[in-house]
Each structure stands twice: as C-alpha cells, then as structure tokens.
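For reproducibility, we list the full input for the uridine-5'-diphosphate complex.
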Amino acid sequence: MNPTRLLLVIPCYNEESILYLTYSKLNSYYNSIKKQGLIAQNSRICLVNDGSRDKTWDIIEELCERDADIIGVSLSRNFGHQSAIMAGLEHNIDDFDCFITIDADLQDDINAITGMIEKHGQGAMVVYGVRGDRSSDSWFKRFSAEGFYILMQKMGVPVIFNHADFRLMDRRVLKELGNFKEINLFLRGIVPLVGFRNDKVVYNRLEREAGETKYPLSKMLLFAWNGITSFSTFPMRLVLYFGLFNFLVAMAIVVYILFSYLVGYTVPGWTSTMLPLTFFSGSNMMALGLIGEYIGKIYEEVKGRPRYIIEKIVNE
Ligand code: UDP
Ligand code: MG
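The corresponding predicted structure, in tokenized form, follows.
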C-alpha cells in the first residue's frame, strides 16, 4: 500500500515568537517520517494565518519561499481558531488522503503523529489526540478544562474527554464534515457526530515555549459557552424546571396570602410584597436572557455568513 499523503494544518494567530521554532521542529520531524515511509513524499504542511496583527504572515511567506512543502493561507481577518482550522482543511481537501490539525505552539506532542498515522493505517477514520498528563498546565487551566469536559458530557454533548483539536481525519470524514453548515463551529462536538471508526492516541501536553496563550480566561469561557449552547438545549430545559419551581412557590405564597386574609391578619407587610416581586422579576429576567441566547444563535445561523474568507494563498 502506498503511504498516505498527509496534510498538517496549523492555525496561527499572533504567533511570531514561536513560528520559527515550530517550523524547525516540524520540518525535521516531517522529514524523518517521510524517510521512514510512514507518509508520502508529497505530504505538506499548511500554515493558516488567522488575521494576526504581528509578523506571523510575513514569517509564513518567508517559510513558503524557503520550503516548497509549506502552504500559506491568510484569512482576511481574525475568524477564530475553529474557522482557521476549517479554512486550512477545506481548501486542501482534494489533494491529500488524511489531515491532522495541531496548534502552532506544539503543546500537543508532535511525536503522537506517528501513532495517529499508524492507527489510520489500521482503518481508523478519525484519531483523537487525548491529553494524558496535564501537569504542564497551571492548576487553574487543568481544573477548568477538565471541569468543562465533564460539564459538556453531562449536558449531552459528545466530546471526548481531554481531547482538544489535535486530531487526524480521513478525507472521507472531512467531506462529511463539510455538510455541517453551522457557523458556530465547535469541532470537538461535531467530529464525533460525523461517526466512522475512531481511535485515540494518548500523549503528554507540553508547555508553551514562547509567546502567550491566545485563550485568556474570557475567551475560554466564551468558547465553553458557545460549545454548550451550540450543542445542548439543556440550559433551556433548566429554565423550564426553574420556572416550574417558581410557579409552585408562587402558589404556596398565594395560599398564605389568602389564609392571612381569611384569619383577619390584613396588615400588608413590606417584605412579603417586595420579596416575591424581586425574586420573580429576577428569575423572569434570567429566563428571558437564556432564551435570548438561543434566539441569538438562530439569528447568527440563519444569516448563513461565510465561516472565513481567504485573502491570499502561497505555494498552492
Ligand atoms: N488561534 C487562532 N485564532 C484565534 C486564537 C487562537 O488561530 O483567534 C490559534 C493559535 O495560534 C494556536 C491555537 O489556536 O495555534 C491554540 O491557541 P493557544 O495555544 O493559545 O491556546 P491554549 O493552548 O492556551 O489553549
Ligand atoms: Mg497552546
């Protein structure tokens, strides 16, 4: 059997401080697995510039000039991690057999790629990279990330525990993935929905060697929230339960008021007016906000805007 043509897709957002290092590591690793015959000679690497404001694109262009195996794709602005990945994948879909996505900082161990290719050779159409050891992450990152996976699973989102966006996909899977038209891309949730035979490769997550995380807490929370509301109507159901509970409490209060009236205790207290008023208007607001969240999602999807816009391509 011929070795597979592999495309490595790397989203890059303001990564000037680490790109050269990433390139040199990847280049030597790529050459070695080519030599071993694990992947085809015409396997390549696609660097996607996600509207960086630093020198990232200049560096990508320079690398493209130096190395014909690099494909540079530049988006017209910052579309976000998930869309940048899709841009790199979809643009090159017809030229490769399988695709691996990995972050520009190589925190996900590139040596796991060998295992992924082997599993693909054994028939797996999707191979998930799963973080075994997270000791390089801060206590907070680990706690919040793992809590996130558990919460997602509890709400019925089919995420793989401790798997981020380091994964191998066969071209067939990618073709089917293209039929998922939603703009709010949450690949971790969508890829398992595509199905097909899958496998896992466990690796240890390393530390970022240069630059800083592009996922500060606010962005991380937004990402998690997007993931939940894109996949699960559980929060809406929760509001329904909450509303039901409120209704029962209100009924009890009505009984209490009627009873007070009947026994002649008619001096109306300030507390008994204000308390329910505040409580119920507050919970109403909350429920409305949550419903608004979902309507906002519908609004975004209905518009059907493009996920990304490619401005330039080098070494096509
Ligand atoms: N990234 C991107 N667009 C964005 C934010 C991030 O393409 O708007 C890329 C970033 O360059 C990196 C990957 O997504 O290759 C993951 O980001 P990072 O390593 O900062 O996240 P962390 O590992 O801290 O969760
Ligand atoms: Mg990282």
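Strands lie at 6-12, 44-49, 70-75, 98-101, 126-131, 163-170, 198-203, 310-314. The mean pLDDT is 86. Both points were considered when choosing residues for closer inspection.
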